[in-house]
Specification:
The protein is of the alpha/beta class. 17% of the residues lie in helices and 32% in strands.
Length: 419
C-alpha cells in the first residue's frame, strides 16, 4: 500500500482539502498532557512557571533600620538647628549593618549609623551624614530632623501573609530576590519539557561528514534542537534516522521514556519514503493534514503511547516556520505558560509581499525603522529550501488566507522571531 497516488487534476491541492492554522494548532494544544510539578532550588527555578501560590511567613524589613548613612538622633534635639547655626551633640558610638549590640540613644547624644543598620533604642530619626560636619566625637547638625525621617519600619515592604508569587507566574530574577529575602529556598514549579527531536531521511548525513552526490548535511536536527532550547525546553536528539519502518519504530520506542513531546522532521509528505504517518499509526495514532499555510503545508499530529508527536515537513524553512507556528506554542503550553504566542508588530511592507490563494503566507523579513514606523522587507528569495532566508530574518510577515499580495507601503503584521 502506498500514499504515492496521483489525482489527475490541474491543482496540487484543492482549497477544500486544507485545514486552518488555528484548527491544527488547537488540535496540538488539546493533545498535550498536564505537566507534573516538581520542587526545585530557588536559583534553578528561574524562568519556570510556579505551580502554587507562595505567601510570606515573615515581615520585610524584619526590624527598624536606617535608610541612610548618618546619625541616629532624637529629632526633638534638633529643632533649632540651621545651616549657619548648627546644633552640636556628642557622638557616643557607631552602629554598623549587622550589629547585635546597640547603644541607647537619649536626648543630647547621638550615634553614627550605616545604611541597613538597626536603629538603636531611643532614636527616632536618622540625619544623613551630608548635612552634618565634624563627627569624630562631636557632630554639628545644620538642619532640623523630623520623627521617622530616614527610618524603615518593620513590615514596610510586606507583612506575614502577603502573597509573594502566584501560581502560573513565570519566575523572574526579581521574584528570586523577593523569595530569598523571605527565606524561601525551594519552590514547586512546572519543569521544562523534554523534547525529543527526530530527523529522518536517507539523504541525510551528519554536519561533520562530507556529503556524497545526492546527500545533504542534516540542518533540521540541530536547528530544531536549538529552537527547543530557545523556547525553554530540554532537547534530546535521536540522531539521523533512516527511511525505514523498523528504524523509525526503534527511535520512538527507545526515546519514549524520557520524552514529553516528539518533534519529527521529514516523512510527512506524499512520497513513497514518507513513512512517518504509517509508523505513528502502528505505534499510536496519527493524523496527516494539509494546513492552509506556506511554507509548511504537510503536517502530522499524533501520539506514541502517552507522548504527543508533532511531525513537520523536511524542507528547512518549512520546518522552521512550522516550529514557530505550532511547536513553540506547544512547548510553552507544556511549561504552563499563558503567553504561548510570539509578540507581533505592525509594519509597512518595504516591497510587495505575496502568498498563494487560500493559504496563509509566512514571508521571512528584515525589520528596520523609518520615520517612527517599522518597515518589513523580504530577506530575498523565499524558497522553502533557502536557509539564508531564515538566518537573515527578524520576523515572519503574515499574509492572510484571503489576500494574495500586500503591496509595498501597505500595512502587514509581523510575527517576531526575537523575544
Amino acid at each position: 500500500m502506498t500514499r504515492f497516488v496521483g489525482q489527475g487534476r490541474s491543482e496540487v491541492t484543492l482549497a477544500e482539502e486544507l485545514v486552518s492554522v488555528e484548527e491544527h494548532l488547537e488540535g496540538i494544544l488539546q493533545s498535550l498532557p498536564a505537566a507534573e510539578p516538581i520542587e526545585l532550588r530557588l536559583v534553578d527555578a528561574l524562568g519556570l512557571v510556579v505551580a502554587e501560590d507562595v505567601v510570606s511567613e515573615v515581615a520585610l524589613p524584619a526590624f527598624t533600620n536606617s535608610a541612610m548613612d548618618g546619625y541616629a538622633v532624637v529629632a526633638g534635639d534638633l529643632v533649632d538647628a540651621t545651616e549657619h547655626s548648627p546644633t552640636q551633640l556628642p557622638v557616643i558610638g557607631e552602629v554598623a549593618a549587622g550589629a547585635l549590640e546597640l547603644p541607647v540613644i537619649g536626648s543630647g547624644r547621638v550615634a553614627r549609623i550605616m545604611t541597613g543598620a538597626p536603629v538603636p533604642p531611643g532614636a527616632d530619626a536618622v540625619v544623613p551624614v551630608e548635612v552634618t560636619s565634624g563627627g569624630a566625637t562631636q557632630v554639628a547638625f545644620h538642619r532640623p530632623a523630623s520623627p521617622g525621617e530616614n527610618i524603615r519600619e518593620p513590615g514596610g515592604d510586606l507583612t506575614p501573609g502577603t502573597p509573594l508569587v502566584s501560581a502560573g507566574r513565570r519566575l523572574t530574577p526579581a521574584d528570586v530576590a523577593l523569595l530569598a529575602a523571605t527565606g524561601v529556598t525551594r519552590v514547586r514549579c512546572l519543569p521544562p519539557p523534554r523534547v525529543v527531536v527526530l530527523s529522518s531521511g536517507d539523504e541525510l548525513v551528519r554536519p561533520e561528514d562530507q556529503p556524497r552526490t545526492g546527500q545533504i548535511r542534516d540542518s533540521n536536527g540541530p536547528m530544531l534542537s536549538a529552537l527547543v532550547r530557545a523556547a525553554g525546553g530540554v532537547p534530546f536528539s535521536t540522531g539521523i534516522v533512516r527511511d525505514d519502518r523498523k528504524a523509525l519504530m526503534h527511535a520512538f520506542d527507545s526515546n519514549s521514556g524520557h520524552a514529553d513531546l516528539f518533534v519529527c522532521t521529514g516523512g510527512a509528505s506524499a512520497g513513497t519514503r514518507d513513512l512517518m504517518p504509517d509508523v505513528l499509526s502502528v505505534l499510536g495514532n496519527a493524523r496527516s493534514v494539509k494546513v492552509a499555510m506556506k511554507p509548511g503545508m504537510p503536517q502530522i499530529r499524533g501520539r506514541v503511547g502517552k507522548v504527543p508527536v508533532i511531525g513537520l515537513p523536511g524542507n528547512p524553512v518549512s520546518a522552521f516556520v512550522s516550529f514557530e507556528v505550532f511547536v513553540r506554542p506547544a512547548i510553552r503550553r507544556l511549561q504552563g505558560r499563558r503567553d504561548v504566542a510570539r509578540p507581533t508588530v505592525n509594519a509597512v511592507a518595504g516591497a510587495a509581499i505575496t502568498a498563494p490563494p487560500h493559504k496563509r503566507g509566512y514571508t521571512r523579513v528584515r525589520l528596520s525603522r523609518d520615520q517612527g514606523r517599522w518597515v518589513a522587507t523580504p530577506t530575498g528569495p523565499q524558497g522553502s529550501h533557502l536557509i539564508t532566508s531564515i538566518a537573515r530574518a527578524d520576523g515572519l510577515a503574515v499574509v492572510p488566507e484571503e489576500v494574495t499580495e500586500i503591496p509595498a507601503g501597505e500595512q502587514v503584521q509581523v510575527h517576531l522571531l526575537v523575544d
